[in-house]
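Internal QA ticket QA-208
Title: Verify multi-chain structure generation after dependency bump
Assignee: T.L.

Test input:
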Amino acid sequence: MRDLIDLWVGAQAWIFETLVSPVLFHFGLMAWYEPGYSAVEFVMLGVVQIAVIAVGMRFFERRWPLEKPGRDDGLIMVDRVYTVLNKLGIIPLAIFIATYPLVQEIELLVRSWGFAPPRLERVLPWIGDNDLVSFLVYFVLYDFAAYWLHRGQHAFGWWWALHSLHHSQRRMTVWTDDRNHVIDDLLITLALVLFSQLVGVQPGEYVVILMVGRLIESWSHANVDMSFGWLGERLLVGPRFHRLHHALSTPAERHIQDHNFAPVFPIWDILFGTAIYDGKTRPTGVDDAAVDADNGRGWLTQQATVFGRFVRALIPKFRRRVSAQ
Amino acid sequence: MTRLSIAALALLLVTSEAARADSVLVLNSEEASYSILSRSTRTEVTRLPVGREPHHLILSPDGKEVLIGSTATNELLSLDIKTGERKRVVKDILDPYHLGFSPDGKWFVTAAYRLDHVDIYHADGFRLAGRIFIDGLPSHIAFDTQSKTVFVTLQQSGRLAAFDLATQTLKWNVPVGNAPAGVVMLPDDKRLLVALTGEDGIVQIDPRDGSVKGSLQTGKGAHNFFPKGDGRHYFLSNRVEGVVSLIDTKDELKVVGSVRIPGGPDCMDITPDGRELWVTQRFLRRVAIVDVETLKVVGNIHVGKSPHGVFMLKSTATVTAGAPVRAASTAGEIK
Ligand SMILES: [Zn+2]
Ligand SMILES: [Zn+2]
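Actual output:
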């Protein structure tokens, strides 16, 4: 383990000191010195995640596919683009730059009031001193916020206009998780970053939560009929659990997608009465021709058309004018 | 032996009488923890959570506790000087990024890096005397030997500001170069050295009016000072270059030695016998141990993420009330 960390940190330091640090120094961007170092780690973690998905998770999809190869296979291609853009930090970097001034303003304002986030080790000293337990507590808190944000994505018309892009895929695979509109990514990131600062998650912990959480979420979209067992399925979100959330609604199950919202820990669905464990396999997608039309489009076209959908949902006047034409 | 059993054994040692003077504290700024290292065995004894985004730490004027600036939680966390264990919390110290006591022990000053202000407290009871808002990321502080003035580098605006402690007013605020960080007052009280992290060296400043009197090329990303202890030589970390330079300040400033320390070397401290310099390597999650005479790296210890401040616990016998106190990791040489 020690050797592995050494190797990892050594690679990170080498990449940073050879490629990033000289550029920052040359352009007088020394204020970005530490964040630049973290960014290198973010990209490295992205490469690891892509490798785990492409090699590890794909192995199970190939070996035990739930839906056999079919005519919709071509639709998956664009999801790979989403995954690469997100995991390699291209979209996160854009979001970071866009939200940085706002996050800064809020953070500094709150800090100038003298507000200090609670610290687990102060509230529960025996637990807080244990690295693993402390990490899990923050992870669970983080996931709690993510659960409610996800419910928001389904509850508000304007937000669903964005989030429906994630649901429009008819072929769920390990690549589906990152299929989101950039504005949706931005809103969720902003909310989760602010929430994390509020409850006192450390930058170092945040990276690990993000990494582990997103890998579990990639797996929960896998095209496999596997679960972690009766108990496991209730402790961690798996493909069977999340597939139900992507199920195509039918006249008999009109609100099937309003279930199994939890990103990582199903406990939230169980607690708030939105969990369904019935073991049935359903086709996935959205029963709305306008949304289903996302399929077959490329990344840029999807982003543009979904943005239009979002604007129309957001501004009723604009929506009326468009429908009157 | 497993890491756990080493830790358990070492924990026993730490709390024992003999080990008191043997410990070194390191703040792991990105994982909100501090490591207790053993000087003799060169191992990490234990790692404990502490505040949020801790960067620098200093000795209290009475020499009984070590104070850690926990920036994101707006407080000082004190550790017992003997055991390194957590002792008490001083609340309502906003964003204490860099911190220090005046040499006479009367004033306590913090640079609120993120919140853009310099706070001057009466050290007794940490009563706020004055808060001065100043743009440009106040980053490091130093005092004159008379305890009349505090000097603060402003990283973003490339300036150095001087404040009168008694009246908490600005004396001067002058440009010194790109991204100034560490600042130190030489024992003659006539020369200030400022490290320019955005450039490749340091400048010498006249403390009376802030005029630049000279400069010295040391390495890219010159960052922080630590006195060798002879009142004449100073170590300087150059973060981008990955080098620690030894500077002679006797007459003209001169680089008289250097040692390669990769991984963004930052804060430093010297063992009580004056033989080893310990340097935090921010990017490599390590502390490097340098032999002061030969300027060779003689050891490495793994610590947590982004280690920043480092502090040698000394036995209480060597610390007396009213003894020299200093700004975190940029100790002025005070007699
Ligand atoms: Zn959903
Ligand atoms: Zn999904």
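Spot checks passed. Residues 3-15 of chain B form the longest helix (13 residues).
Status: verified.
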